[in-house]
Amino acid sequence: MALWVIAGLAFLVAAVALASTRRLRRRLDAMTQSYWELRYDYTRLRSQVSRLDPDQVDEAASVEVPPAAAATVSFVPLSSIKKKP
After folding, report:
1. Is the pLDDT of residue 6 over 90?
2. What is the distance between the alpha carbons of residues 83 and 23, in angstroms, rounded to a whole number?
3. Of all helices (H) and strands (E), which one includes residue 74?
4. Domain locations in the chain?
5. Fewer CB within 10 Å, N or C, the chain?
C-alpha cells in the first residue's frame, strides 16, 4: 500500500513539474516575442531619426571612442591561493 502512495505522490509531483515547465515556456516565448518587437521598433525609430537629421548621424560616427583599457588582473593559480597548514 505504501508503494502506491509513493507512486501517486511521484505522479502528482511530475504533473506539477510539467505544468510549471509549460507555464515557464509560455512566459519565455512571450518575453522573446517582446524582445524582438522592441528590437524592431528601435531599429525602425533609429532609421526615422537618421532620415530627419542626417547631420547628427555623421557627427556621431565621427566621434572616436577610446579603446578599452587593458585588464590589470592576470591569471592567478589556485595553488597560490590555497591555505597552507
Report:
1. yes
2. 47
3. none
4. 25-61
5. C
